[in-house]
Specification:
The chain has 127 residues and is an alpha/beta fold. It contains 2 helices and 8 strands. 20% of the residues are buried. This is Glyoxalase.
Length: 127
């Protein structure tokens, strides 16, 4: 198998709201969109796709579920600067900056549809 790209998909009610949030706060760019669908990309990260809840392209047994229990985790070079930037932009920080005993430092924001985005770094990791 040769993988040529990677993306994570979230089922949400307001595709445009989630897409705009990723573009505004995280520098993603819309690559394609249609009614009920948006695909966003960055050169340095996996793609993110938002699908409107209820679309027939989704498996019938979870077509009406919302994104839940999934976190989009982004490892960043300067976690403290990103925390300050997102606070200054008014992004809803739903888990403040913290350090775990195993060396992970992280915080989380939540988009208008409840999609959790976690920014993290590793204590002692080469930058």
């Amino acid at each position: 198998m040769q993988v040529t790209n990677t993306a994570i998909c979230f089922t949400v009610d307001d595709v445009a709201g989630s897409a705009a949030f990723l573009a505004r706060h995280f520098g993603y760019q819309e690559a394609m969109s249609a009614d009920g669908f948006a695909s966003l990309t960055r050169d340095d990260a996996a793609g993110v796709i938002f699908l409107r809840r209820g679309l027939e392209v989704l498996p019938a047994d979870f077509r009406d579920q919302r994104a839940a229990g999934t976190i989009l985790a982004l490892t960043v070079a300067d976690l403290d600067a990103e925390y300050a930037r997102l606070r200054s932009e008014g992004a809803p920080i739903t888990l403040p900056l913290l350090a775990e005993e195993w060396g992970e430092r992280l915080f989380q924001v939540t988009d208008p549809n409840g999609v959790v985005i976690e920014l993290l770094d590793w204590a002692g990791a080469a930058q």
